[in-house]
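STRUCTURE:
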């Protein structure tokens, strides 16, 4: 690939001052971690906060804690179309994976389908409705899941709602902060999320029993080794420079980096968050607010630019007017149209990307678990979804090029 302006599909800028803050936090040890925890608890109005090395590490710790609380339950229900890190964490926690199909207009659960899973017709009187340990609704692309509706369907207070807010830090629904709606929630601070410390995970909960078990698990979790921390610092320095569109062509041209790839890997490491990452997150509320403002501006502008294109071939995924998207999702029904849009994006460096490459039951390592089941809407999402970049690096000229490209191809 020759040098040219190339947009990352998603990005939360890491500035040099963030890295300096990370080094200062390393010097002060765990003080920065304590500050970050207290700020998170105060901002989200929760009593417990834990910090881990990644979002999937955070989810694994949550699920292990829930298994200790309810040892007779081991089934975890998730959307059939979601980030591959979620099934990776469930398998890592040695629990059983169950899937629910999707609403055809949103990327939330199909709640009629979900009701049947929660209340099977053969349920015997005076016995639990189902053996689910947890349900994990996801605010995919920042689009809020309807957790109040989910809670009203449960009929069993032993089923824990684990709120997947990995892509939704800073978002709200009806004035309530995403990440504060479930029994326990987690955020990701990885690349391309609402806020990035290269990698990182946050757990929030008001439930003392869950917090007690997570705290016990964390006593056996190691911190970053010196080599791992050095690698993290180098990656932070690289991202602070190479995520700029005028330089992003370079890492994108290196296939071994697998930028934008979707990987199912249950063998990931679980670490405690380092002081360096907590230091990088300093002033996180200010940064999230600035990034959020930019993303909302770009999303509204793109929505206006492509409004007249919405047909049976191309449509915007339904989301609330005040949704804080981290990517702008479109459904493209015609496979050849989708292929052409992605090819032109690659040629022009527009940062348009496909969604997840398959529904969860289509992941090769998991296919045998669902050989007799179909999740048709989730499969269609994997075939039809594309996402447009709306992060702070996007310029007015970029937006115009994206909209013009899609318009020319569609018409």
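SEQUENCE:
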């Amino acid at each position: 690939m020759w040098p040219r302006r190339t947009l990352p599909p998603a990005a939360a800028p890491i500035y040099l001052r963030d890295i300096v803050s990370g080094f200062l936090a390393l010097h002060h040890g765990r003080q920065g971690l304590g500050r970050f925890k207290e700020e998170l608890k105060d901002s989200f109005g929760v009593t417990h906060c834990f910090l881990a090395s990644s979002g999937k590490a955070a989810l694994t710790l949550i699920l292990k804690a829930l298994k200790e609380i309810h040892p007779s339950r081991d089934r975890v229900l998730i959307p059939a179309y979601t980030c591959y890190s979620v099934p990776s964490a469930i398998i890592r926690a040695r629990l059983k994976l169950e899937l629910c199909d999707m609403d055809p207009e949103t990327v939330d659960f199909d709640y009629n389908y979900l009701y049947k899973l929660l209340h099977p017709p053969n349920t015997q009187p005076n016995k639990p409705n189902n053996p689910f340990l947890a349900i994990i609704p996801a605010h995919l692309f920042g689009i809020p899941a309807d957790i109040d509706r989910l809670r009203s369907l449960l009929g069993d207070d032993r089923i824990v709602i684990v709120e997947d807010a990995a892509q939704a830090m800073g978002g709200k629904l009806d004035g309530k902060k995403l990440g504060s709606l479930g029994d326990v929630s987690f955020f990701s601070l990885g690349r391309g999320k609402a806020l990035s410390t290269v990698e990182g995970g946050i757990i929030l909960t008001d439930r003392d029993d869950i917090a007690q078990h997570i705290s016990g698990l964390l006593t056996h979790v190691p911190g970053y080794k010196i080599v791992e921390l050095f690698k993290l610092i180098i990656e932070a320095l690289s991202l602070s420079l190479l995520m700029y569109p005028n330089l992003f062509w370079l890492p994108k041209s290196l296939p071994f980096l697998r930028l934008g790839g979707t990987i199912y890997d249950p063998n990931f490491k679980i670490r405690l968050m380092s002081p360096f990452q907590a230091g990088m997150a300093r002033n996180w509320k200010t940064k999230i607010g600035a990034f959020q403002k930019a993303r909302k501006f770009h999303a509204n502008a793109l929505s206006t630019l492509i409004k007249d294109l919405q047909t049976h071939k191309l449509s915007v995924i339904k989301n609330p007017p005040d949704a804080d998207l981290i990517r702008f999702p479109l459904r493209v029904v015609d496979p050849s149209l989708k292929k052409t849009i992605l090819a032109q994006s690659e040629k022009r460096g527009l940062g348009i990307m496909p969604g997840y490459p398959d529904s969860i039951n289509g992941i090769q390592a998991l296919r045998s678990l669902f050989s007799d089941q179909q999740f048709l809407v989730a499969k269609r999402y994997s075939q039809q979804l594309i996402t447009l970049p709306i992060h702070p690096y996007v310029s007015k000229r970029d937006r115009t090029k994206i909209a013009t490209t899609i318009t020319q191809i569609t018409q």
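REMARK: The first strand starts at residue 48 and ends at 52.
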